[in-house]
Amino acid sequence: MAPLDAKKVLARAVIFLGPPGAGKGTQAKLVAEKLRVPHLSTGDMLRENVGKGTELGRVAKPVMERGDLVPDDLILRMVEDRIARPDAANGFVFDGFPRTLAQAEALNRILERQDFGPPVVIFFRVADDILMRRLAGRRVCRVCSEIYNVYDRPPKVEGRCDLDGGELIQRDDDRAEVVRERLAAYNRQTKPLVEYYRSQGMLDEIDAAAGMAAVTDSVFGVLGQPKGRA
Ligand code: AMP
Hints:
alpha/beta; Rossmann fold; 5-stranded parallel beta sheet; 10 helices; binds adenosine monophosphate
Protein backbone atom coordinates (compact mmCIF):
# COMPACT_ATOMS: atom_id res chain seq x y z
CA MET A 1 0.00 0.00 0.00
CA ALA A 2 1.29 3.48 -0.82
CA PRO A 3 2.29 5.45 2.28
CA LEU A 4 -0.36 7.94 3.35
CA ASP A 5 0.78 11.51 2.80
CA ALA A 6 -0.33 13.44 5.89
CA LYS A 7 -0.18 16.78 4.14
CA LYS A 8 -2.47 15.61 1.35
CA VAL A 9 -4.99 14.19 3.81
CA LEU A 10 -4.92 16.63 6.71
CA ALA A 11 -3.60 19.96 5.55
CA ARG A 12 -6.24 21.60 3.48
CA ALA A 13 -7.01 24.70 1.60
CA VAL A 14 -10.49 25.94 2.38
CA ILE A 15 -12.15 28.15 -0.23
CA PHE A 16 -15.10 30.39 0.61
CA LEU A 17 -17.02 31.19 -2.53
CA GLY A 18 -19.90 33.65 -2.79
CA PRO A 19 -20.88 37.22 -3.60
CA PRO A 20 -19.47 40.22 -1.75
CA GLY A 21 -21.42 40.71 1.48
CA ALA A 22 -22.27 37.01 1.89
CA GLY A 23 -20.37 36.86 5.19
CA LYS A 24 -17.29 35.00 3.92
CA GLY A 25 -14.83 37.26 5.73
CA THR A 26 -16.48 36.89 9.12
CA GLN A 27 -16.70 33.10 8.82
CA ALA A 28 -13.24 32.71 7.29
CA LYS A 29 -11.71 34.44 10.31
CA LEU A 30 -13.56 32.16 12.74
CA VAL A 31 -12.56 29.01 10.88
CA ALA A 32 -8.93 30.07 10.56
CA GLU A 33 -8.78 30.80 14.28
CA LYS A 34 -10.33 27.46 15.18
CA LEU A 35 -8.12 25.43 12.83
CA ARG A 36 -5.08 27.57 13.73
CA VAL A 37 -4.22 28.26 10.12
CA PRO A 38 -3.84 31.62 8.37
CA HIS A 39 -6.84 33.55 7.05
CA LEU A 40 -5.86 34.69 3.58
CA SER A 41 -8.09 37.44 2.31
CA THR A 42 -6.78 38.66 -1.04
CA GLY A 43 -8.85 41.84 -0.51
CA ASP A 44 -7.08 42.52 2.84
CA MET A 45 -3.70 41.74 1.26
CA LEU A 46 -4.40 44.18 -1.56
CA ARG A 47 -5.65 46.88 0.83
CA GLU A 48 -2.43 46.46 2.83
CA ASN A 49 -0.42 46.98 -0.36
CA VAL A 50 -2.48 50.06 -1.22
CA GLY A 51 -1.95 51.42 2.31
CA LYS A 52 1.81 50.88 2.11
CA GLY A 53 2.01 52.34 -1.39
CA THR A 54 3.79 49.31 -2.91
CA GLU A 55 4.03 48.80 -6.68
CA LEU A 56 1.20 46.23 -6.50
CA GLY A 57 -0.85 48.66 -4.41
CA ARG A 58 -0.41 51.43 -6.98
CA VAL A 59 -1.72 49.19 -9.76
CA ALA A 60 -4.56 47.71 -7.66
CA LYS A 61 -5.91 50.95 -6.15
CA PRO A 62 -7.81 52.38 -9.16
CA VAL A 63 -9.11 48.92 -10.11
CA MET A 64 -10.49 48.35 -6.62
CA GLU A 65 -11.97 51.83 -6.46
CA ARG A 66 -14.16 51.13 -9.45
CA GLY A 67 -15.20 47.68 -8.15
CA ASP A 68 -13.37 45.69 -10.84
CA LEU A 69 -11.08 42.68 -10.43
CA VAL A 70 -7.30 43.06 -10.19
CA PRO A 71 -5.48 41.16 -13.02
CA ASP A 72 -5.02 37.42 -12.43
CA ASP A 73 -1.23 37.36 -12.78
CA LEU A 74 -0.77 39.89 -9.95
CA ILE A 75 -3.19 38.04 -7.67
CA LEU A 76 -1.61 34.67 -8.37
CA ARG A 77 1.92 35.86 -7.66
CA MET A 78 0.74 37.39 -4.37
CA VAL A 79 -1.10 34.19 -3.35
CA GLU A 80 1.67 31.79 -4.30
CA ASP A 81 4.24 33.81 -2.31
CA ARG A 82 1.92 33.89 0.67
CA ILE A 83 1.11 30.17 0.87
CA ALA A 84 4.77 29.22 0.48
CA ARG A 85 5.42 30.81 3.88
CA PRO A 86 5.94 28.38 6.80
CA ASP A 87 2.78 29.35 8.70
CA ALA A 88 0.68 28.06 5.78
CA ALA A 89 2.19 24.58 5.85
CA ASN A 90 -0.83 23.08 7.64
CA GLY A 91 -3.43 24.65 5.42
CA PHE A 92 -5.17 28.02 5.10
CA VAL A 93 -8.54 29.59 4.59
CA PHE A 94 -9.01 31.65 1.44
CA ASP A 95 -11.46 34.50 1.48
CA GLY A 96 -12.14 36.24 -1.83
CA PHE A 97 -9.93 33.88 -3.85
CA PRO A 98 -10.19 32.36 -6.43
CA ARG A 99 -12.45 34.84 -8.20
CA THR A 100 -12.01 33.83 -11.85
CA LEU A 101 -11.78 30.53 -13.70
CA ALA A 102 -8.13 31.26 -14.52
CA GLN A 103 -7.40 31.76 -10.82
CA ALA A 104 -9.17 28.49 -9.90
CA GLU A 105 -7.21 26.52 -12.49
CA ALA A 106 -3.93 28.10 -11.45
CA LEU A 107 -4.75 27.37 -7.80
CA ASN A 108 -5.10 23.66 -8.60
CA ARG A 109 -1.61 23.68 -10.07
CA ILE A 110 -0.17 25.64 -7.11
CA LEU A 111 -1.74 23.24 -4.58
CA GLU A 112 -0.38 20.27 -6.47
CA ARG A 113 3.11 21.80 -6.65
CA GLN A 114 3.06 22.41 -2.92
CA ASP A 115 1.75 18.89 -2.19
CA PHE A 116 -1.70 19.78 -0.96
CA GLY A 117 -4.77 17.64 -1.62
CA PRO A 118 -7.90 19.06 -3.29
CA PRO A 119 -9.45 22.11 -1.59
CA VAL A 120 -12.69 22.18 0.39
CA VAL A 121 -15.03 24.59 -1.39
CA ILE A 122 -17.93 26.17 0.51
CA PHE A 123 -20.44 28.22 -1.46
CA PHE A 124 -22.33 30.94 0.47
CA ARG A 125 -25.81 31.13 -1.09
CA VAL A 126 -27.67 34.42 -0.34
CA ALA A 127 -30.25 36.66 -2.08
CA ASP A 128 -29.34 40.08 -3.53
CA ASP A 129 -31.48 42.23 -1.18
CA ILE A 130 -29.74 40.77 1.87
CA LEU A 131 -26.35 41.42 0.26
CA MET A 132 -27.14 45.09 -0.30
CA ARG A 133 -28.13 45.51 3.36
CA ARG A 134 -25.02 43.73 4.59
CA LEU A 135 -22.69 45.78 2.39
CA ALA A 136 -24.36 49.11 3.20
CA GLY A 137 -24.22 48.33 6.94
CA ARG A 138 -20.67 46.96 7.01
CA ARG A 139 -18.05 48.74 9.09
CA VAL A 140 -14.46 47.60 9.51
CA CYS A 141 -11.95 48.34 12.27
CA ARG A 142 -9.19 50.58 10.95
CA VAL A 143 -6.70 48.81 13.26
CA CYS A 144 -7.46 45.06 13.13
CA SER A 145 -9.97 44.70 10.21
CA GLU A 146 -12.61 43.12 12.48
CA ILE A 147 -15.96 43.25 10.67
CA TYR A 148 -19.19 44.72 12.13
CA ASN A 149 -22.62 45.54 10.76
CA VAL A 150 -24.68 48.47 12.01
CA TYR A 151 -27.89 46.43 11.51
CA ASP A 152 -26.92 42.85 12.29
CA ARG A 153 -23.75 43.00 14.38
CA PRO A 154 -23.30 46.44 15.95
CA PRO A 155 -20.26 47.17 18.13
CA LYS A 156 -20.82 47.71 21.88
CA VAL A 157 -19.79 51.38 21.55
CA GLU A 158 -20.90 53.10 18.36
CA GLY A 159 -18.05 53.64 15.90
CA ARG A 160 -15.46 51.75 17.98
CA CYS A 161 -14.06 48.21 17.69
CA ASP A 162 -14.95 45.88 20.60
CA LEU A 163 -11.50 44.31 20.44
CA ASP A 164 -9.15 47.29 20.44
CA GLY A 165 -11.25 50.46 20.46
CA GLY A 166 -10.07 51.25 16.90
CA GLU A 167 -12.17 53.54 14.72
CA LEU A 168 -14.79 51.75 12.60
CA ILE A 169 -14.84 52.91 9.01
CA GLN A 170 -16.83 52.18 5.87
CA ARG A 171 -14.71 50.73 3.08
CA ASP A 172 -14.58 53.05 0.06
CA ASP A 173 -15.85 50.24 -2.12
CA ASP A 174 -18.91 49.62 0.08
CA ARG A 175 -20.52 52.79 -1.32
CA ALA A 176 -23.70 52.03 -3.30
CA GLU A 177 -22.37 52.78 -6.80
CA VAL A 178 -19.25 50.65 -6.30
CA VAL A 179 -21.28 47.85 -4.70
CA ARG A 180 -23.31 47.57 -7.92
CA GLU A 181 -20.08 47.19 -9.92
CA ARG A 182 -18.71 44.59 -7.49
CA LEU A 183 -21.88 42.53 -7.74
CA ALA A 184 -21.72 42.78 -11.54
CA ALA A 185 -18.07 41.63 -11.49
CA TYR A 186 -19.10 38.74 -9.25
CA ASN A 187 -21.93 37.66 -11.55
CA ARG A 188 -19.76 37.91 -14.65
CA GLN A 189 -16.45 36.44 -13.46
CA THR A 190 -16.83 34.58 -10.17
CA LYS A 191 -20.25 32.92 -10.38
CA PRO A 192 -19.05 30.47 -13.08
CA LEU A 193 -16.78 28.97 -10.41
CA VAL A 194 -19.86 27.57 -8.66
CA GLU A 195 -20.52 25.33 -11.69
CA TYR A 196 -16.81 24.62 -12.11
CA TYR A 197 -16.47 23.17 -8.61
CA ARG A 198 -19.96 21.61 -8.62
CA SER A 199 -19.23 19.68 -11.82
CA GLN A 200 -16.17 18.20 -10.13
CA GLY A 201 -18.29 17.11 -7.14
CA MET A 202 -16.37 19.46 -4.88
CA LEU A 203 -18.96 22.07 -4.00
CA ASP A 204 -20.56 22.25 -0.57
CA GLU A 205 -23.40 24.75 -0.43
CA ILE A 206 -24.68 26.54 2.69
CA ASP A 207 -27.58 28.92 3.38
CA ALA A 208 -25.72 32.15 4.15
CA ALA A 209 -28.88 34.22 4.70
CA ALA A 210 -29.29 32.76 8.20
CA GLY A 211 -27.89 34.46 11.32
CA MET A 212 -24.17 34.42 11.99
CA ALA A 213 -24.22 31.56 14.53
CA ALA A 214 -26.31 29.34 12.23
CA VAL A 215 -23.97 30.00 9.32
CA THR A 216 -20.98 29.14 11.51
CA ASP A 217 -22.66 25.83 12.41
CA SER A 218 -23.21 25.05 8.71
CA VAL A 219 -19.60 25.88 7.87
CA PHE A 220 -18.21 23.63 10.60
CA GLY A 221 -20.68 20.92 9.57
CA VAL A 222 -19.20 20.97 6.06
CA LEU A 223 -15.62 21.04 7.34
CA GLY A 224 -16.34 17.89 9.33
CA GLN A 225 -17.51 16.08 6.20
CA PRO A 226 -16.53 17.89 3.01
CA LYS A 227 -17.39 16.60 -0.46
CA GLY A 228 -14.54 15.20 -2.53
CA ARG A 229 -12.73 14.36 0.70
CA ALA A 230 -15.03 11.83 2.29
P1 AMP B 1 -12.83 41.87 -1.09
O1 AMP B 1 -12.32 42.45 0.19
O2 AMP B 1 -12.61 40.39 -1.18
O3 AMP B 1 -14.26 42.25 -1.36
O4 AMP B 1 -11.95 42.51 -2.27
C1 AMP B 1 -11.92 43.90 -2.51
C2 AMP B 1 -11.44 44.18 -3.92
O5 AMP B 1 -10.12 43.68 -4.10
C3 AMP B 1 -12.26 43.52 -5.02
O6 AMP B 1 -13.40 44.29 -5.37
C4 AMP B 1 -11.23 43.44 -6.15
O7 AMP B 1 -11.04 44.69 -6.76
C5 AMP B 1 -9.95 43.12 -5.40
N1 AMP B 1 -9.74 41.64 -5.25
C6 AMP B 1 -9.76 40.92 -4.08
N2 AMP B 1 -9.52 39.62 -4.32
C7 AMP B 1 -9.36 39.48 -5.66
C8 AMP B 1 -9.11 38.38 -6.53
N3 AMP B 1 -8.99 37.12 -6.07
N4 AMP B 1 -9.01 38.64 -7.86
C9 AMP B 1 -9.13 39.89 -8.35
N5 AMP B 1 -9.37 40.98 -7.59
C10 AMP B 1 -9.49 40.79 -6.26
